[in-house]
Design brief:
This protein folds into two domains: about 40 residues, no CATH class; about 120 residues, Immunoglobulin-like, CATH 2.60.40.420. The chain has three helices and ten strands, in the order E-E-E-H-H-E-E-E-E-E-E-H-E. It is globular and about 35 Å long. It starts with 6 loop residues before the first strand and ends in a 5-residue tail after the last strand.
Length: about 180
């Protein structure tokens, strides 16, 4: 059986930090190198944490999303749903909420995120897929993030980089062949 050339192990508690050499022997790592690997491995584990589920549409979130739609119409001059016939679904960012928090789209649909807050900037980050976080989007009709979902059907969670932990600003795009 082939042994991976460099396998690192960071134990919990009083266990040692070790690295597997090319012959398969576990060699303890001590000193600064061992501490650096523990920090790197701990950071890597945190980065792999899955994005939380989007929030449920509570009456409070529904009210926020209704207000977001009114602000959208005032800024853009048309309902956000009017772009659906062009293959665009709009997600509004308002009061630390993605509105709606979950969208179901057919493959080939473009999702557009717009910020309708007054002063807060937001971002869109598909962290679980390894994509980079978008630039911050400010409340400006010229600023938006768009992504065309022409890949395989599935569920794609995303979050607002600066607000997902403290505010729970998380959303999901579900690509579904049977979407309306």
């Amino acid at each position: 059986m082939a042994v991976p050339p460099l396998f690192c192990y960071a134990g919990s508690g009083n266990e040692a930090v070790a690295m597997q050499d090319r012959e398969g022997a576990m060699k303890p790592l001590t000193g600064l190198l061992g501490m650096v690997l523990v920090v790197m491995l701990a950071g890597g584990a945190a980065a792999q944490e899955k994005a939380p589920e989007p929030p449920k549409m509570t009456p409070e979130k529904q009210k926020i999303c209704e207000e977001a739609e009114k602000r959208y119409q005032k800024i853009y001059g048309h309902p956000s749903g009017s772009l659906k016939k062009k293959g665009i679904v709009v997600v509004k960012m308002f009061k630390y909420t993605f509105c709606p928090p979950q969208v179901r789209v057919k493959p080939g649909t473009t999702v557009r995120w717009v910020n309708v807050d007054k002063r807060t900037s937001h971002s869109v980050w598909f962290r679980d897929t390894g994509k980079e976080e978008s630039e911050r989007i400010f409340p400006d009709p010229e600023e938006m993030v768009e992504m065309k979902f022409d890949g395989p059907p599935g569920e794609y969670s995303y979050l607002c980089g600066p607000h997902w932990k403290a505010e729970g600003m998380v959303g999901r795009v579900i690509v579904d062949l049977k979407a309306p």
